Amino acid sequence: TAAGSRCLLLLLLLLLGVLGAPALGDPGPLEDVVIDRYYIPKICLREAQMGDFIRYHYNGTFKDGKKFDSSYDRGATVAGVVGVGRLITGMDRGLQGMCVNERRHLIVPPHLGYGSIGVAGLIPPDATLYFDVVMLDIWNKNDKLQITTLSKPERCNRTVENSDFVRYHYNGTLLDGTPFDSSYSKGSTYDTYVGTGWLIKGMDQGLLGMCAGEKRSIIIPPFLAYGEKGYGTVIPPQASLVFSVLLVDFHNPKDGVFLEHLEVPESCKRRAVTGDFVRYHYNGTLMDGTLFDSSYSRNQTYNTYIGKGYIIPGMDQGLQGVCMGEQRRVVIPPHLAYGENGAGDKIPGSAVLIFDVHVIDFHNPADPVEIETVFRPEGCNVTTRNRDFVRYHYNCSLLDGTRLFSSHDYEKPQEVTLGANKVIEGLNSGLLDMCAGERRVLIVPPHLGHGESGARGVPGSAVLRFEVELISMEEGVPEGYFFIWHGEPPASLYEQMDLNKDGGIPADEFSTFIKTQVAEGKGRLMPSSDPEKVIADMFRNQDRNQDGKITPDELKLKSDEDQEKIHEEL
């Protein structure tokens, strides 16, 4: 029966045990190392080979679990060359083929361990040894720097060379991934020269050829790092180092300003020079693209003189020779910007600055109005002078084409008496010596326009462009006059003006008389769009006591008034 069979098997096992036969599953004496790879990392870039230098941790025990040695207890890893007889044979064999971070259980028989002699006071003779090992580092004296590019910007105009000054972020780990340092944790880049001995040799080499914004993984063997001594408590002796590096920016102390002309207008009649006052928009970034300032965000241009030290030296140089409307990239090394100290909390020390500039306009304080005659009629004999009354159409814009004002937005042309301080000085100058029907383009610098303060709708220090067309003109009268006689005035002026001969001249009589003189060609009024107002102003000027009528004592010609003033001054 089944129960009888089970009883027979049990009796057989007991009998074998009494007779001293080997138990089932006992392999007997080991001939070689038993290897149990109980943890293998997913990524294994390299396996330990004969002659490789390795670093590892281990616990050593006997079969009963009693510990006889441990690198952990000593607080230091074990470093040595594998496969060349410097370790017990079983360990030499058991470590070969291991990956970094791999964990193994090794069972080393006596003849591959310390044999029949053992180690006095530590390992008895003929002891089987049990090791729990984790591999931490593998390298070879023939190794070279291992560089892997993780990401690289599309544009790379320049790469790192020896003697360049670099600013970079990094995470530093041992080969098993143990972190030992990070610039990110310090909140600032690591800044240094390349190829001048300030860095370990491997980093000096690993940074060469990098672009600003590039990310690299750099694996450095110990002999290009800290070698046999290690570094402090964080980097053990003979440790390979892994750096994940982001190059933020770099420059050379010999660098000047680098210019890139992004867009230059086809027509560039003039280029900015020292002493010019420039209005421009800009975006300011670090080399990694971090924006630190922008005039666009303030919706206002940056306005300054160039070449006079009002701005950083690099920008003073970078704006030389710009055209109006030009878009230019200005790359400025730190010694021509904010130097080692940086500026505020947005520009780090030793930072390279990139300005993308759009020049709106510029002028020189000595500039006159620039006049371009677009059309001038034939037979132009009569031209405008100060005190003339003119009607004209105009379009006004900034030099970047921004439209400001236009007379075409209104029903009638603009009307003004030239030289009466009714328009900006530059426009007044540009309207002089014009014929009716003539068209001009005027470029008016701000000191002849609306100045540093600007006006409603006009930015401060803006150069203005006017397209003007003179519609008509009327000859003016001298300053201070409302009416002038074409010949000598009547000898009995008051009597002729007093139409009803009542000894007083009210406003209606005065108006009738003046209009008659104009109609008969004996004199002319100051030109105006409102002649009635001119006559009313004349009457008020003569009605000195403001009683509504002019008396003989009150009526005086302008020439007589001027003579009285001269007499008083004398």
From TrEMBL:
Query: In this protein, which residues make up the domain named EF-hand?
Result: 493-520, 530-565
- What are the recorded GO MF terms, alphabetically? calcium ion binding; peptidyl-prolyl cis-trans isomerase activity
The signal peptide annotation in the UniProt record is: 1-25
Name the segments for region: Disordered: 539-570
According to the entry, every stretch annotated as the PPIase FKBP-type domain falls at: 51-139, 163-251, 275-363, 387-474
Q: What class of enzyme is it?
A: isomerase
Reactions catalysed, semicolon-separated, are: [protein]-peptidylproline (omega=180) = [protein]-peptidylproline (omega=0)
Which key words tag this protein in UniProt? Calcium, Endoplasmic reticulum, Glycoprotein, Isomerase, Metal-binding, Repeat, Rotamase, Signal
One Pfam family linked to the record: FKBP_C
Chief location category? endoplasmic reticulum
The record's InterPro entries line, in alphabetical order, gives: EF-hand-dom_pair, EF_Hand_1_Ca_BS, EF_hand_dom, FKBP-like_isomerase, PPIase_dom_sf, PPIase_FKBP_dom
Q: State its Enzyme Commission number(s).
A: 5.2.1.8
Q: Where in the cell is it found?
A: Endoplasmic reticulum
Q: Does the keyword Endoplasmic reticulum apply?
A: yes
Entry GO CC? endoplasmic reticulum
The cross-references to PROSITE patterns, in alphabetical order and at most eight, read: EF_HAND_1, EF_HAND_2, FKBP_PPIASE
What function is annotated for this protein?
PPIases accelerate the folding of proteins during protein synthesis.
The protein in question is named peptidylprolyl isomerase
